[in-house]
Every structure is written in C-alpha cells, then in structure tokens.
Amino acid sequence: MTSPHVRATGPAPRAPTAKTLRDAWLGAAIFTAVAVIVGLVDPTRPGRFPSCPFRSLTGFDCPGCGSLRALHELIHAHVAAAADYNLLLVAFLPYAAVVWLRAVTGRTGRRGIPRWWGPRLALIVVVLWTVLRNLPVFGGVLAA
Fold first, then answer.
1. Which of 18, 37, 58, 85 could form a disulfide with 70 if both were Cys (CB 3.0 to 4.6 A apart)?
2. Secondary structure element (H or E) that encloses residue 65, with its range
3. Other C-beta atoms within 10 Å of 107: how many?
4. Of residues 32 and 118, which shows the higher confidence score?
5. How far is CA 40 from CA 85, 92, 93, 144, in A?
6. pLDDT at 9 over 70
C-alpha cells in the first residue's frame, strides 16, 4: 500500500548524451556571443548590421525582421520596446530557454504531443506571424 503523500511520477530523467550536451552548450555559446555583440553595437544605427534581404527584395517584413533590435532592447531590459520590434522573438526566447534547460538536464520526454507536431507547428506559427505582421491592421503595430 502506498502512502497518501507519495505521488506517482513518470520515469526518472535520463542523463543527456554527450552529443546533446555538446550541441546545447555550443548553441548557448553562439547565442551568448551574438547577444554580447548585439548588446554592445546598437542595431538601430545604420550600417552596423546588414539589412534584411527579404525586406530589400519584397518590401515586406520577414519573420526575423527586427530581431536584432529586439534582442538589443531585451539585453538592456526594455521588454516593451523589444516586443515592438519583434514580438515573436520576445515570445520565443522563454520557450527556447526551457527547451535548452530540458536538454541539458535530460528531461526531454514529450508530454502527449506527437514528435511530428513540433516542426509543423513552428512552420504554421512563422507563416502566420509573417502574414499578420505585414497586414495593415491595428495601425501596423506588428511590423518591425
């Protein structure tokens, strides 16, 4: 008989593989290097970073337009300004942090969501974001 204070839990997390740890830490190092550069160099000043080729060719914002400016503002703790530049990035970073933590701690198990949904859901979100931010609704508040 079990005690009423003991909860049944799933299987214990498995230790992450060396490849998973290497990839996670390499990704964190690259993100940190980019964040340091973007934090030190203001992307709102012309000529500091290349312009978006998609926007140059089409005149529309791509899903990533405003990401450097948003990251710069986040680094300087201006969350509202960051959301104004690229709301998708601001919403994505906490999710990315959780995924990274789960990878390095070995807690990578899925919880009821089929594996094939991840890429499809990401594609749907990116396409919807691209379309919505280029529509002239709400006074263009979603544009970069």
1. 85
2. none
3. 14
4. 32
5. 18, 22, 20, 21
6. no
Sequence-distant (6+) residues with CB within 8 A of 49 are 41, 43, 68
The token pair that represents 134 in the structure block: 């280029």
Give the number of other CB atoms < 10 A from CB of residue 45. 8
**Quick one: pLDDT at residue 54?**
94
CB distance 43 to 51 below 8 Å: no
DSSP letter for 62, please: P
The C-alpha atoms of residue 8 and residue 17 are separated, in whole angstroms, by 26
Rg of the chain in Å (alpha carbons): 19
Give the CA count within 13 Å in the CB-facing half-sphere of 31.
13
